[in-house]
Structure formats: structure tokens, C-alpha cells
């Protein structure tokens, strides 16, 4: 069986040499002439699927850029990983970030400023954005973020159920209501039509609803210097009482998490849904007869909780000029193609797209574009923002209101104490 | 004869060097640096930090979230350890038999243990779901009211404990089974000849001979339960209203999501001390008993 010839045995040196050679080769590949753009984002839902399509188009049009996109789990996991990578100086070239998280992300140490002249060379100017949106991206005179969109809290409505409830106008759109009485009447009519609930809401995280209502009451949160909690108890309780009333009247479920909220609107148990606009793709895919509108002005002024997705350059210890240029061009390209992004529900921040016919033709996505100037951002603090500690504290305190485990009064007291504790904690950024 | 002795000693060190290097880099260094950081306001964001002295430690004792999350960890440990030991023993006694039934029992008792935490929690979140979950289906079929297990403050921890028992009891079961199979058959034979019945054999032979294994399992289980994080993070995220948030989650939140590495290090050290005390106390009790037996 065995032959007399010695089997081929590579020497140790030959193996080592080969390995080293292979390493050097791959090293050369990575350092090749193509500029590199690695992007981290947090879009895991319907908007994430849309992002992938847009990225496919970007890659097809830019064979000269080595582009890689990674989607990470939304919220704390995403921001934790991004912070770690930026703290170590080995971050990706570009990442998405909620506008409300920008100041709490320690921009001076964990982000690199965006070279405005590169952005202008790529055809994007300050005048292309709403001033209020742009101004929030500038910290200490430097631009740290480029806004991609705005995503307000809106009203979803089921066309068949609302027709049955007599809430649609002749144009087949929901008739706008203002004031608490009209708001409650509308909800009661929907409840009669569904026989179950009027609205599907996420009772485990009532922040967006509460912040919208509190904003409409013109409530203040922090003193102008950001050092004191100046929450208006009467207004805060007014909003919480309304949330409690909706649940106790059976207009909303007593307990429903995010997926239950989506399910209850999808299956017609609720004829309305209060949520951010990003589930539009989900309901379109489900072939649900629905449309969208601004959230009703229940109280005094139009304010709608919301946020913006932005692009940021996380801190790199050794930033490469070619990569940065390609990255800024990528950001500009994404803004100019944000009508496809808008199809996922978000209102583009780039005004040339907002004014385009292509965007105006998007239904129902263009129906609530009027709220853009009235988007009500989360309070300004290092512990505040999308998915950050302040929202978590509100969820912990307020989620018991709908279930009846907590009264609005006790919930508010708990939330205020928790916020005060955060305020007393020395800022780590 | 100093030469060979010296050679032997350092030669040994050479062989353990790869391990020692990694151990020092990933274990000793973080432990030391964590202790060092606990005296500073070190931030993950990389802003300048200052020496705080004992400020973090003072804050920790006045922070109700530390104590409530520590309490949740201890409650979880107290609720999960007894069933994880007793049920494992019962299962081992049942499965310690030959033939297809023994094989089937061994297989099904151990199977959940090989699942990753994500899969286990996904399954159980659906099982506990109000409206269409299995548990609430059984409750309503039996004429009881539905319970929103994971969203009710005094039910959520129980729900997590049940999930944990289902998931991890297989490991303790395996330890017990191995110990049972190590008891010589002659002992039972002799007992049977002397007229001992099954109950007497169990209480006079099997259980005493398993006592060392029981001690080991209790220690391992206490330490494992104290380290609870995955299931709770994935099932309730510490909610509702922090009713299930374990101390490790609070450390994670302070250190990583809030960037306060210094403060998180101080809490870690408090927790580290508790684990060491529990483990040492258990080992003391257990080894004392072992010598007496």
C-alpha cells in the first residue's frame, strides 16, 4: 500500500514563509487604491430593507469605492458599539445617529467634524436644510452631523374602519380634529366601529405619546441652562391623565408592546395607530387599506415628538483623506437619493427632495410632511435622546399607567425623581 | 544540582507562558484596571478624567438602583437554585436506567441546555404572550384569568426563573447522572440481600453517596445564578419598572450605555466581593461535610 517515496512535507520555514506572504498580500489588498467607506447603521426594520436597496444602487454606481454597510441592533447596543469603536479610534468611516443623541455622544472626543467644504464640493449646502435642523448639527461652531430625515410621531388610520365610523372627508382623508373633546369623540367612534380598540399604542413605552401631548401643552422640561428640572406638574399630569383615560375607557389596550401595537393595527383590532411613521412599509406589504396624517392637535399648539437620523463621522485615530472625501460624497449621494428613503416613511431633511414632484407623489408618505417644522425633539441632556436613559426611565415609570399598576401622580413622581437623579449625576461627556 | 532544578522550574514556566500571557492580559489586567478606575470618573467617551477618591463608592451606597438590582439578583438566585438542584436530582434518578426509555429521558432532559440564550428566550416570550401564548391558553382553558407574565411586576421574575430552570437544569442533571453511574452496583446488591427496600436504598445509600456532588452543584449553581443577565436582558430588559433588572445589567447600563466606566467598576467590585464570599462560604461548608462523610 504505502509507497517508498517520502511523502511531501513542507518545511517549517516554507509554511511560515507562505503564511507571511499570504498575510502581506491580503494586507496589500486592503490598502489598495480604492477609497474605503464602511457604514454602520441601526435600521433593522422596514426602513432597513429599503436602505439595503439604496445601498445596492450606490454600490452599482460607485465601483471605485470599497463600500461596506453593517446593520446593528437598534438603540443601546448600537450606540454602545459605536461609542466603543470611536473611543478606540478604530471606528467605521460613517455611521447613522439620532440627532437627539448627538450632544450626549461627546462629539468633541468621539466624533470627527465634517469638512463643510467637501460637503459643498459634493453639492450639499446649509441652505438645503431647514435652519432648525441644521443648527442642531453644529456644536462649538463645527458641523458634526448631516441630517438625512425627520421622523415625527404620526397618526395611522385604517380607511375602511374610519369610513364606517364616518371620520373620512369627501377626499377620502381623515377629517382633522382639534381639542380633547373632538379627539375623544373620534376615538369613541372608531371603537364602536372595530368593536375592540380605537387606537393601537405601545403601552410599555409611552414616551412619544406623552412628549407629544406635553409639547402641545407648551410644557417645559429643563431650565434654559439645562441645570434644573422645571417640569410643569399640572401639564404633565394632564397628559398622563389622558393616557390613563384612553386605557381605562378601553380606547387603547391596557398592555401592548411594540410588536403587539403593529399587530393590532394590522389585523383591524384597532382602527388607528399612534406611532412613528416608519411602519408604512410594513402595512403596505400587508396590503392594509390605510393612510397617514399628522397626529391631532389635542391641546394648544402643534408639536409632534420626533427625531432625525443623521450621518456622523465617528472618531478615527488615523483618518485617511481619500476615505473621508469618499465618505462625504456618499453622504451627499444618500441625501440626493433620499426620496427612496422617504418611501419608508421618513420626511427627507434635504429640501430639494422635499420639493420634488417625486416626493409629493408618494402617498401616504407626503401626507404629513407639513409637521416637519414642528417636530418636537427630546430634551437636551447627555442622558436623553432616542433609546437613551431618560426614555427608559419614562418607560419604567409610565408603563404602569395604562395597565392600572400606577396612578399618573405616582408615575410622574417616580419619573421626576429618576430624572433628577440623572441630572445630579456628573456628566461623563 | 542547581542547574537542572533551575532548568526544570523555568522550563515549566515556558510551557505555561502562552496561557499565562493571555490570563494576565484578559483577566489580571482588567481586574487591576477596574479597581484603579473605580477611584476615577473614567468615561467611555474618552474625556479627561479626575481622581475622585472614594466618591464612586460613597455614591454606590446611596444609589437605590444598586440595591434594588442587587436584590433582584439575590431573589433570582434564591428562587432558581433550589429547583435547579432538586429537579436535576429527580430527573437523574428517573433517567438512570438502561434501554430506550433511559436514552430518551437523558436526551430530552439535556436537549434544552444546548440551545443558545437568544433561541430560548424567543421561545419563552411567545409562550408567555397574552392573547395567544401557550401558558395563557392553558390558563383561560382552565377558567383562570390571563396573566401578562413579563409585564407584571410580581410575575416577571417567576417567569424568568421557570425559563431558566427549563433551559439549564440539564447541566446539573448530567452531573448527577454521572455521579449516580459512579455508585458501584454491589452496594445496592448487598443492601437488597440485607432486605433494604427501594426507599431505604435511596435515602441510606444513593443520597449520602451523592452529597459531594450536591455540594459541587450547589456552588456552581449559586455562582451561575448570581451571574444572571442574558435571559432577563432578552425577555424583559429588566422591566417592568426595573422589577427584574439584575445588578449586572445595571453595571452594563452605567458603564457602557451611560459611559460611566469608573462608577460601573466600583459596582462590579461590590458584586465581585459578594460572589467571592458566597463561593468561599459554600466551599467551607461543603468541604467540612465532605471530610465528615
UniProtKB/TrEMBL annotation, chain A:
InterPro entries documented for this protein: Bact_solute-bd_prot1, SBP
Name of this chain's protein: Carbohydrate ABC transporter substrate-binding protein (CUT1 family)
Organism, as annotated: Kribbella pratensis
Automatic annotation (TrEMBL), chain B:
Primary location: membrane
Keywords on record: Cell membrane, Membrane, Sugar transport, Transmembrane, Transmembrane helix, Transport
Designated name of the protein: Multiple sugar transport system permease protein
Source species taxonomy: Bacteria, Bacillati, Actinomycetota, Actinomycetes, Propionibacteriales
Keyword Transmembrane helix listed: yes
PANTHER family in alphabetical order: ABC TRANSPORTER PERMEASE PROTEIN, DIACETYLCHITOBIOSE UPTAKE SYSTEM PERMEASE PROTEIN NGCF
Source species: Kribbella pratensis
Membrane topology category: Multi-pass membrane protein
One Gene Ontology cellular component: plasma membrane
Transmembrane segments: 12-32, 74-95, 107-127, 156-178, 261-281
Amino acid at each position: 500500500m504505502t509507497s517508498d517515496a517520502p511523502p511531501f512535507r513542507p518545511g517549517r520555514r516554507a509554511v511560515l514563509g507562505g503564511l507571511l506572504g499570504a498575510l502581506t498580500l491580503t494586507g496589500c489588498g486592503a490598502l489598495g487604491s480604492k477609497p474605503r467607506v464602511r457604514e454602520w447603521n441601526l435600521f433593522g426594520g422596514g426602513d432597513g430593507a429599503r436602505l439595503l436597496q439604496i445601498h445596492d444602487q450606490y454600490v452599482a454606481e460607485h465601483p471605485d469605492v470599497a463600500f461596506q454597510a453593517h446593520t446593528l441592533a437598534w438603540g443601546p447596543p448600537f450606540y454602545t458599539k459605536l461609542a466603543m469603536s470611536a473611543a478606540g479610534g478604530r471606528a467605521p468611516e460613517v455611521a447613522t445617529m439620532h440627532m437627539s443623541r448627538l450632544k450626549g455622544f461627546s462629539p468633541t472626543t468621539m466624533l470627527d467634524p465634517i469638512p463643510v467644504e467637501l460637503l459643498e464640493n459634493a453639492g450639499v449646502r446649509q441652505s438645503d436644510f431647514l435652519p432648525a435642523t441644521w443648527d442642531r448639527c453644529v456644536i462649538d461652531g463645527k458641523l458634526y452631523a448631516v441630517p438625512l430625515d425627520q421622523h415625527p410621531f404620526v397618526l395611522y388610520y385604517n380607511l375602511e374602519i374610519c369610513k364606517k365610523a364616518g371620520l373620512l372627508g369627501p377626499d377620502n382623508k381623515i377629517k382633522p380634529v382639534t381639542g380633547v373633546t373632538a379627539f375623544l369623540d373620534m376615538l369613541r367612534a372608531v371603537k364602536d366601529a372595530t368593536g375592540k380598540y380605537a387606537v393601537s399604542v405601545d403601552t410599555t413605552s409611552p414616551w412619544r405619546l406623552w412628549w407629544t401631548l406635553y409639547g402641545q401643552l407648551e410644557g417645559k422640561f429643563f431650565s434654559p441652562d439645562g441645570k434644573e428640572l422645571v417640569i410643569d406638574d399640572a401639564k404633565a399630569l394632564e397628559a398622563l391623565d389622558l393616557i390613563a383615560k384612553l386605557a381605562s375607557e378601553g380606547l387603547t389596550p391596557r398592555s401592548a408592546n411594540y410588536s403587539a401595537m403593529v399587530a393590532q393595527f394590522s389585523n383591524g383590532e384597532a382602527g388607528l395607530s399612534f406611532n412613528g411613521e416608519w411602519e408604512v412599509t410594513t402595512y403596505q406589504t400587508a396590503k392594509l387599506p390605510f393612510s397617514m396624517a399628522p397626529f391631532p392637535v389635542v391641546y394648544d399648539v402643534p408639536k409632534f415628538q420626533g427625531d432625525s437620523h443623521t450621518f456622523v463621522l465617528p472618531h478615527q485615530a488615523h483618518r485617511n483623506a481619500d476615505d473621508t472625501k469618499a465618505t462625504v460624497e456618499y453622504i451627499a449621494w444618500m441625501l440626493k437619493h433620499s426620496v427612496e428613503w422617504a418611501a419608508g416613511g421618513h420626511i427627507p431633511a434635504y429640501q430639494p427632495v422635499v420639493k420634488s414632484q417625486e416626493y409629493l407623489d408618494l402617498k401616504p408618505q407626503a401626507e404629513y410632511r407639513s409637521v416637519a417644522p414642528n417636530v418636537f425633539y427630546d430634551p437636551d441632556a447627555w442622558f436623553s435622546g432616542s433609546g437613551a436613559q431618560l426614555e427608559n426611565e419614562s418607560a419604567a415609570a409610565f408603563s404602569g399607567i395604562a395597565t392600572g399598576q400606577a396612578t399618573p401622580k405616582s408615575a410622574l413622581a417616580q419619573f421626576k425623581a429618576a430624572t433628577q437623579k440623572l441630572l445630579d449625576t456628573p456628566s461623563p461627556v | 544540582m542547581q542547574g537542572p532544578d533551575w532548568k526544570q522550574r523555568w522550563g515549566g514556566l515556558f510551557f505555561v507562558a502562552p496561557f499565562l500571557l493571555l490570563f494576565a492580559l484578559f483577566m489580571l489586567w482588567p481586574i487591576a484596571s477596574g479597581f484603579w478606575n473605580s477611584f476615577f470618573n473614567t468615561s467611555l467617551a474618552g474625556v479627561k478624567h479626575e481622581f475622585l477618591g472614594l466618591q464612586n463608592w460613597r455614591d454606590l451606597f446611596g444609589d437605590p438602583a444598586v440595591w434594588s438590582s442587587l436584590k433582584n439578583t439575590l431573589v433570582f438566585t434564591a428562587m432558581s437554585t433550589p429547583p435547579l438542584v432538586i429537579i436535576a436530582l429527580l430527573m437523574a434518578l428517573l433517567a438512570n436506567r438502561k434501554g430506550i426509555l433511559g436514552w430518551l429521558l437523558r436526551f430530552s432532559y439535556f436537549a434544552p441546555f444546548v440551545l443558545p440564550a437568544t433561541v430560548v428566550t424567543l421561545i419563552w416570550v411567545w409562550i408567555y404572550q397574552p392573547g395567544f401564548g401557550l401558558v395563557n391558553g392553558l390558563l383561560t382553558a382552565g377558567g383562570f384569568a390571563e396573566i401578562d407574565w413579563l409585564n407584571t411586576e410580581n410575575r416577571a421574575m417567576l417567569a424568568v426563573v421557570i425559563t431558566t430552570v427549563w433551559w439549564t437544569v440539564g447541566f446539573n442533571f448530567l452531573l448527577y447522572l454521572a455521579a449516580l453511574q459512579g455508585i458501584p452496583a454491589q452496594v445496592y446488591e448487598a443492601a437488597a440481600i440485607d432486605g433494604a427496600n427501594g426507599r431505604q436504598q435511596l435515602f441510606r445509600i444513593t443520597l449520602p453517596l451523592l452529597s459531594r456532588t450536591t455540594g459541587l452543584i450547589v456552588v456552581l449553581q449559586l455562582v451561575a445564578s448570581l451571574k444572571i443577565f442574558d435571559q432577563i436582558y432578552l425577555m424583559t430588559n429588566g422591566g417592568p419598572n426595573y422589577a427584574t433588572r439584575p445588578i449586572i445589567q445595571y453595571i452594563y447600563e452605567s458603564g457602557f450605555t451611560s459611559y460611566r466606566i469608573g462608577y460601573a467598576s466600583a459596582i462590579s467590585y461590590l458584586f465581585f466581593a459578594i460572589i467571592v464570599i458566597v463561593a468561599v462560604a459554600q466551599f467551607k461548608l461543603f468541604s467540612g461535610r465532605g471530610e465528615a462523610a
